[in-house]
Every structure is written in C-alpha cells, then in structure tokens.
C-alpha cells in the first residue's frame, strides 16, 4: 500500500519527544543570565588579581579605570606620563557595570601589591547582583552574589 503523510500516532510521538526535550533544557535557558553574571564577575576579579600580581612582578603601579557609561574597564600603567593600556574589557548585556563605591572610578595597585584604597564594584543582571570587593589593607579580591538586579 502506498501511504503519504503521517499517522496521528506518529505525529503525537514527535510532539511528546519535543515536549520532553523542552522540559529537560528549559531550566538551563532560565539560568543563562546567572551564568553570564558569574562569568563577568570572575573576569573582573581575575583582571584585578592579575593587575595586582603584575604590579608586584613589574615593580610599578597598575591602574584600573572604570567607565560606567560605556560599561567597560581597562588596566593600564603610566609610561613616560602616558597611559599604556594593557587590557580592556567591554561588559556585555544583560550584565551591567553599575557602581563603584569611590568618587573617582580609578584605583591602582602599588608595587607592593597593596591597593590605593578598598573598593566595591557592582555588576548587575536582570535578577541578581555581584559585588567584587577589594580589601583595603591586603588587596584581597572576593566576590559576593546577592538577589536584586535590574528589575
């Protein structure tokens, strides 16, 4: 017999398989923003630790400057009174660089590895925030996550 098309049973079977796939992958799509926030928080913390280590190894000040409006930050050193940018990062949506608890969004690590001041940098996504905290005396960099984001 020559059949064209699908039976009702075959169509229902395909729908059940697709529904099962959606049920299993749905939670991972919902947590995608959380992973992006964690990724950017780790990037920033890593860049801060790297610039601190570079200040110690190179025996020179390493500056970190934040541009909230551009949602970016960069690491640089002064060479003959000119900025030599070493690393620049553009934070990508939905994560936003929202706040720094210092009046001038610039601080540096000294050749001993100590920060010029303690600071807290806040990254936000739609539902959570990450605070990157730099201890004033030791320069220890740590990350804290909290509920409450852009919404």
What does this structure look like?
Helices cover 33% and strands 34% of the residues. With 151 residues, it is of the alpha+beta class. It starts with 7 loop residues before the first helix and ends with a strand. The model has no long low-confidence stretch (mean pLDDT 87).
Strands across the major sheet, in which order?
A: 3-2-1-5
H/I helix tally:
2
The CATH topology: minor pseudopilin epsh fold
Write down how many β-strands occur, each being a DSSP E stretch of 2 or more residues.
Answer: 8
Quickly give the structural class. alpha+beta
The end-to-end distance, rounded to whole angstroms, is 60 Å
Mean pLDDT: 87
Counted up, domains total 1
Question: Which CATH architecture would you pick?
Answer: 3-Layer(bab) Sandwich
What are the low-pLDDT stretches, counting only 5+ consecutive residues below 50? none
Report the principal-axis shape: elongated
């Amino acid at each position: 017999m020559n059949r064209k098309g699908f039976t009702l049973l075959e169509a229902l079977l395909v729908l059940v398989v697709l529904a099962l796939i959606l049920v299993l992958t749905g939670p991972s799509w919902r947590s995608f923003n959380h992973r992006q926030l964690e990724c950017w928080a780790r990037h920033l913390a890593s860049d801060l630790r790297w610039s601190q280590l570079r200040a110690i190894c190179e025996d020179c000040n390493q500056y970190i400057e934040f541009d909230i409006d551009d949602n970016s930050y960069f690491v640089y050193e002064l060479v003959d009174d000119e900025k030599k940018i070493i690393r620049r990062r553009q934070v990508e949506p939905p994560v936003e660089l929202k706040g720094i608890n210092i009046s001038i969004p610039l601080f540096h690590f000294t050749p001993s590895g100590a920060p010029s001041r303690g600071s807290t940098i806040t990254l936000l996504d739609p539902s959570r925030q990450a605070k990157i905290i730099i201890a004033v005396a030791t320069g220890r960099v740590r990350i804290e996550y909290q509920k409450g984001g852009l919404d």
